[in-house]
Each structure stands twice: as structure tokens, then as C-alpha cells.
Design goal:
There is one protein chain. With 241 residues, the chain is an all-alpha fold. The protein has eight helices and no strands. The protein folds into two domains: 47 residues, no CATH class; 158 residues, no CATH class. It is globular and about 65 Å long. The termini are far apart.
């Protein structure tokens, strides 16, 4: 009986599950480790977005290729259905944003107006940049770094058991929240932490990143639409008047 290769999960560059780089490839081994070269790679990757979005995610892909890290270890696994995952991700992202805006964030008394991005309201000139930031920077970029890359790195340090995976979800979610604090303040950090917990839990269970990329982009684009049409206060008071 033959097996259709197209139905199999996407494989990494050259390695089987759990395999280390060939002993002769010291560069690959160093990049995957936590010695000076491995730590330098981590710092360079994390600093990438300070140059331009989504450079950090692009560097993650370069790191995975050169370190011979299987793509599935950073969540790059072919979905069972591209269209199905796209549709599910979009639906989940839109619903999740309305849940956060109308129910979750009003509970601690968050300001319904996102002042950091309120300049986008009715701002047609900002549309191209906003779309790029939310699709490439957030959907592709943040998911590749915070779910794919950091889960792989922490997994190598902490292991793959249940306790380790819970710890990784908590660590990456807190980090994700802190990354949003300097721009969006406390409410933005709280929302990002909750999003990180939700997306991180899904990634920890499925090990797949495509649906989360779609969901993250849809989440941010829904937030953008609410801001653009100046509906933040209206949506925030749909449940709690």
C-alpha cells in the first residue's frame, strides 16, 4: 500500500523527530543550544522587530533552516485543510475580539477607547500600514515568535511534560502581555496576556500555528474595524450598559 505524501505533516529541513544536527555541523548544534552562539541567536532574533516588522519572525525561519530544526517544532505543520483552518481561524479571531471587547475587558473597568490607536479612527491614509502591521507583523510575526519560537526554546529547557507545557504557556503569555505594555498601557497588557493564554493553550495542544496566525490577524483586523468606524464605546457597552 502506498501513502500519499501530501497527506503527511510537513517535515523539517533534513531531520527526523527529535534528531540533533549531524555531529559535524557545529554551527547548527550551536544555534540550537544555549551556549554563547545560541544565546546570541536568541538576542538577535528578539531584537529584529526593533529594526523593522516582522524581521524577528523572518530571523526565526532563518534560524530554523540553518540550525536544522524541523519546521514542525516551531508549529509549521501543514494543516489538514488550508481553507478550513483559514475559515476557522478567521471566525475564532472575530468572535474572540468581540468577546474581549464586550465582556472580558469591561469587567475590570478598562477604558473602552484604545487611546494608543485611536488615531486610526477614520484615518484612510493609515490603512496600508495598519493592514501590514496586523497581518504580517501580528498574524505572521508575533505568532511565529511567541508561539512557535519561544515554545521551542522553552521546550528544550523545561521539557515536554504537562507541567512544562503549562509553565511555557504562562511564561510566554506574561511575556506577550509585557510586550504590549509600553504602547497600550495596563489594559493592553491585560488583553494581550489573556490572548496569549488562549492562543498558547491552543498551540500547546495542537502544535500547529497556521490557524493561530489567521485568528490573530482576524482578531487585530476586527479591533481595527471597530476603531476605524469609531465603534469602541458601542461594542464595549453591548453587554454591560
Amino acid at each position: 500500500m502506498t501513502i500519499d505524501a501530501s497527506s503527511q505533516p510537513e517535515q523539517g529541513p533534513n531531520l527526523p523527530d527529535g534528531a540533533a544536527p549531524p555531529s559535524g555541523d557545529r554551527l547548527a548544534a550551536g544555534l540550537r543550544g544555549f551556549g554563547p552562539l545560541g544565546i546570541l541567536a536568541i538576542l538577535v532574533i528578539l531584537a529584529g522587530n526593533a529594526v523593522v516588522l516582522p524581521l524577528s519572525a523572518v530571523l526565526v525561519l532563518v534560524w530554523a533552516w540553518r540550525s536544522r530544526t524541523p519546521w514542525r517544532e516551531i508549529g509549521y505543520v501543514r494543516p489538514r485543510s488550508w481553507i478550513g483552518s483559514l475559515a476557522a481561524g478567521i471566525a475564532f479571531g472575530i468572535a474572540f475580539k468581540f468577546l474581549m471587547k464586550a465582556i472580558v475587558m469591561p469587567l475590570p473597568g478598562a477604558d473602552p477607547i484604545n487611546h494608543a490607536y485611536h488615531y486610526l479612527a477614520g484615518n484612510r491614509a493609515a490603512i496600508p500600514g495598519a493592514l501590514f502591521a496586523m497581518i504580517a507583523g501580528a498574524g505572521f510575526g508575533e505568532e511565529t515568535v511567541f508561539r512557535g519560537y519561544l515554545f521551542e526554546r522553552f521546550g528544550k529547557l523545561l521539557g515536554t511534560g504537562l507541567g512544562a507545557r503549562v509553565s511555557i504557556v504562562l511564561l510566554t503569555s506574561a511575556w506577550f502581555g509585557l510586550a504590549h505594555y509600553h504602547v497600550q498601557g495596563l489594559a493592553g497588557a491585560e488583553q494581550a496576556t489573556i490572548v496569549g493564554l488562549a492562543f498558547g493553550t491552543i498551540f500547546a495542544v495542537t502544535g500547529r500555528i497556521w490557524l493561530l496566525m489567521c485568528a490573530h490577524a482576524a482578531f487585530d483586523l476586527t479591533a481595527y474595524a471597530i476603531i476605524y468606524w469609531n465603534l469602541e464605546s458601542t461594542v464595549a457597552r453591548l453587554v454591560f450598559k
